[in-house]
Amino acid sequence: VQLVESGGGLVQAGGSLRLSCAASGFIFRIYAMGWFRQAPGKERELVAAMRWSNTTSSYADSVKGRFTISRDNAKNMVFLQMNSLKPEDTAVYYCNKNPPMTQWGQGTQVTVSS
């Protein structure tokens, strides 16, 4: 199993980023997937999730209306479009099945400056 996140970076408040995750080693299309984040000194939290069928997504209240999760089952990829970013969105972002496996990728750092 491999999860490879990319697309993070440094952005000013109000800016946008699009994260990508390439998954391999399991039958991607039959699993719900999620984006999680972990800020310094805080526990990892689920911010967005999408069922295998692309028809249902859910979001943490803190990102609702600003983040959009999507997936491409043909390419085994999941994406997170993040708009109107806030300093409190600063964290390492990870993708994983939802609920998550014990194995995680390296994550991608998102830093939002005020």
Give the helices and strands, then pairings.
Elements: E1 2-6, E2 9-12, E3 17-24, E4 33-38, E5 45-50, E6 57-59, E7 67-72, E8 77-82, E9 91-97, E10 108-113
Parallel strand pairs: 2-10
Antiparallel strand pairs: 1-3, 3-8, 4-5, 4-9, 5-6, 7-8, 9-10
Structure description:
This protein is mainly beta. It has strands at residues 2-6, 9-12, 17-24, 33-38, 45-50, 57-59, 67-72, 77-82, 91-97, 108-113. The strands form two sheets. A six-stranded mixed β-sheet has the order 2-10-9-4-5-6, with no helix packed on it. The radius of gyration is 13 Å and the shape is globular. The protein starts with a strand and ends with a strand. The model has no long low-confidence stretch (mean pLDDT 96).
Feature tags:
globular; single chain; six-stranded mixed beta sheet; mainly beta; four-stranded antiparallel beta sheet
Taken in chain order, the helices and strands follow as: EEEEEEEEEE
Mean pLDDT level: 96
Span of the ends, CA to CA: 37 Å
Counting helices, strands and paired strands, the structural category is mainly beta
Low-pLDDT stretches: none
**What level of helicity do the residues show?**
under 10%
Radius of gyration: 13 Å
* Strands in their spatial order, largest beta sheet: 2-10-9-4-5-6
Morphology call: globular
β-strand number: 10
- Helical stretch count? 0
Give the biggest beta sheet: 6 strands, mixed
